[in-house]
Design a protein that fits this description.
The structure holds 2 protein chains of 2 kinds. Chain A is mainly α. Chain A is about 75% helix and about 0% strand. Chain B has a domain of about 220 residues. Chain B has 14 helices and 2 strands. Chain B starts with 5 loop residues before the first strand and ends with a helix. The C terminus of chain B is likely disordered. The chains are: A mainly alpha, B mainly alpha.
């Protein structure tokens, strides 16, 4: 395997969890709910995936557990923000704090224990294509899921009636309610979809990215995924570009060090966070564009008048 | 097909003053109840565990001192955050501002170790405040100039600050006589925030925290600035008609909260740790968010809430020693508490109606 191929492969590995988590959050936000708990749901997916894969010896059980726990955990958020109409920002923070706490407690027994790796599935013939073959067609199931999700979310949001309903709820919940749409049901489902995606992204972290449990191993990726949704101005295709761009920045630190540049590792580790800030600034500068694209009801609770 | 059981909310015409006082207590009770379940789940006697966790730390003098040491930074940070949250500015990067305050404040004793006069401590505190302010000004300016989301920028800066601290302690500021341990030289004499009483470790940070609570209370209830902060947050349109500039408010609350977090940071480094280490906070900046909400964004409420959250840190340590329970239980408790606080706050704005279809048909018939 050549150097370029190796670099590209690491970028794919870094980008996949960002892509999945950001796509999930995009759907949630399109329904008008801002869930800042991505980091918490991701880490729950990571620990659940790790624990279940280890217990069963089967990484696929881990993948399913990650998705399940992510969705289950997001249900807590949905109950508070949709049913009890609590402040979404604060509730999302609570979800992150709780997720980091529970995963730390649960994972204590797993520190230093080697995990189970989710192995790649080589697709015959296609994986033989030079350069991109190994990159795109000899990957694990979660990578393939990320690509399916990308097209699935695009089609769902912009080509299906249900997607139209979801966007209507996100843009004007009062009108949607007047049309007879159950705002709370749409939002519950959208939040849980986001949770399932975050859980899957977390499972990727503990089953593919590193096959061991490290406390706080998501290291802010959930927050970067949130920033990606803004960067993408709530469009799935742009999430793809953003995730791979950030994946590349995150990986750059490894290669800069490998090339022998004498830069303290901490500065390189700070790059993804700084890049997030810079990108947010560049995107937000065009206020008109941001206002047009932001779901109009984003972050606002809905209590039907009767 | 009617739903079997549903919860629906009804907006109150007026905020419930009863629930605005009672709701934090409901949240605490729920947390303790669920905590008992958690301990039972971990195979411990819930009653004994809760005693060790929440009562025992209050029974000894030394642990009361520790309580004050942990409550002081929470109070300082949470008071600042309450101004931000009141005005609708979501500063969640206090942890980073705390760290940068600690770093900036440590500059004098580390770079000029021989400068040891009575002037050092005040200068250190000022440097700490300025460091926290500078770090907090970044998300404020980016929000005002470019409309960048302050939640995400302030949080990203936490990671950057932590990495910066890690670098500076392991690199340029490492103690040359420290056998390669990743820590700075120990502070001496005038560089240390002194203890207040002979009976324990509590330092003057606790007194500063009390003064800040009083100052914030006066500002919020008696001055125009305090009114402005609340109006900009609750009714931005009305605020603009009143001539309040939301951008100036944003910058102001970020500077104040960053300054307070920075002050907490240098007080912790100078008073409690007495040197710089790769990690100087057990998550005070994030726990203070819980403190601010549990205290209902009110300085006096924050004072009480900070003591409760400080107790959760101490209880976690005690439970680890005497019950062999992981101190990670603390962050689970803290997360649950914030959930219950937010859920209970719903009662202030809404009436909750439970509907059961059986009842309806009886009444309809």
């Amino acid at each position: 395997m050549g150097f370029i191929e190796a670099v590209l492969l690491t970028i794919v590995t870094a980008a996949t969890p960002l892509l999945i988590a950001a796509l999930g959050e995009l759907v949630t936000e399109r329904s008008g709910v801002l869930n800042l708990g991505v980091e918490g749901m991701m880490i729950m997916g990571a620990i659940a995936g790790f624990a279940f894969a280890l217990m069963s010896g089967n990484p696929y059980v881990g993948v399913i557990a990650g998705v399940g726990f992510g969705a289950l955990f997001s249900l807590l958020f949905a109950f508070l923000t949709v049913t009890l109409v609590t402040n979404q920002v604060a509730t999302g923070l609570a979800l992150t704090i709780l997720g980091l706490g529970i995963s730390g407690l649960w994972g204590e027994a797993f520190v230093g224990v080697p995990g189970v790796k989710l192995l790649p599935i080589e697709i015959p013939l296609l994986s033989e294509i030079p350069l991109i073959g190994k990159l795109l067609f000899a990957q694990d199931i979660i990578f393939y899921c990320s690509i399916v999700l990308l097209f699935g979310v695009s089609c769902f949001l912009f080509k299906s009636r249900m997607g139209l309903t979801l966007r209507a709820v996100g843009d004007n919940h009062t009108s949607a309610h007047a049309l007879g749409i159950s705002v709370s049901r749409v939002r519950y489902l959208a939040v849980m979809f986001g949770g399932a995606c975050s859980g899957l992204a977390g499972a990727y972290m503990s089953l593919v990215y590193t096959t061991q449990w490290i406390e706080n191993m998501t290291a802010g990726r959930g927050w970067i995924a949130l920033a990606l949704v803004v960067f993408a101005s709530w469009r799935p295709n742009r999430v793809l570009i953003g995730a791979y761009l950030f994946g590349a920045v995150g990986i750059a630190q490894l290669h800069i060090q490998a090339l022998g540049f004498k830069i303290p590792s901490q500065f390189l580790s700070a790059l993804p966070y700084l890049a997030t800030i810079i990108v947010l600034v560049i995107i937000s500068r065009n206020r008109r564009l941001t206002i047009i694209n932001t779901p109009a009801s984003l972050g606002k609770g809905f209590v039907p008048d009767r | 097909m009617s739903p079997k059981f549903s919860i629906r909310l009804e907006k109150r015409d007026q905020l419930s003053s009863f629930f605005s006082i009672v709701s934090p207590f409901i949240a605490l009770l729920m947390t303790v109840a669920l905590g008992a379940v958690l301990f039972a789940f971990l195979g411990k006697n819930p009653a004994e565990a809760l005693y060790v966790y929440f009562i025992e730390p209050l029974t000894e003098t030394w642990s009361l001192h520790e309580l004050a040491i942990k409550a002081a930074p929470l109070i300082l940070i949470a008071v600042g955050l309450s101004l931000c949250f009141r005005s609708g500015n979501w500063n969640i990067g206090a942890e980073g501002q705390f760290v940068m305050g600690g770093v900036a404040g440590s500059m004098l004793p580390i770079v000029f170790p021989t400068f040891d006069s009575f002037l050092v401590l005040p200068l250190m505190l000022i440097c700490g405040i300025v460091g926290g302010m500078a770090w907090a000004s970044i998300p404020a300016i980016l929000k005002n100039r470019f409309g960048a989301n302050e939640i995400l920028t302030s949080l990203m800066l936490v990671y950057v600050a932590e990495l910066f601290l890690d670098w500076i302690v392991r690199g340029p500021w490492r103690n040359p006589q420290g056998f390669n341990f990743p820590e700075s030289r120990g502070f001496t004499e005038w560089q240390i925030l002194p203890e207040m009483l002979a009976s324990g470790r509590m330092h003057y940070g606790a007194l500063i925290a009390v003064l800040v609570v009083l100052a914030a209370w006066v500002m919020l209830s008696k001055t125009l600035k305090g009114f402005e902060i609340s109006v900009v947050g609750q009714a931005p349109r009305a605020g603009r008609f009143a001539g309040f500039d939301p951008k100036k408010t944003t910058l102001f609350v970020f500077l104040v909260s960053g300054g307070l977090a920075g002050l907490a940071g240098i007080a912790e480094v100078s008073g409690a740790i007495q040197q710089l280490r790769p990690s100087i906070s057990p998550g005070y900046g994030f726990t203070a968010i819980i403190v601010a909400f549990l205290g209902r964004l009110n300085p006096l409420g924050i004072f009480a809430a900070a003591i409760i959250l400080a107790l959760s840190y101490l209880g976690g340590e005690a439970a680890q020693v005497s019950l062999n329970v992981s101190d990670k239980v603390t962050s689970v408790f803290q997360g649950m508490l914030l959930f219950f606080v937010l859920a209970a706050d719903t009662l202030i704005h809404h009436r909750i109606k439970f509907s059961r279809p059986v009842m309806k048909t009886v009444m309809g018939a």
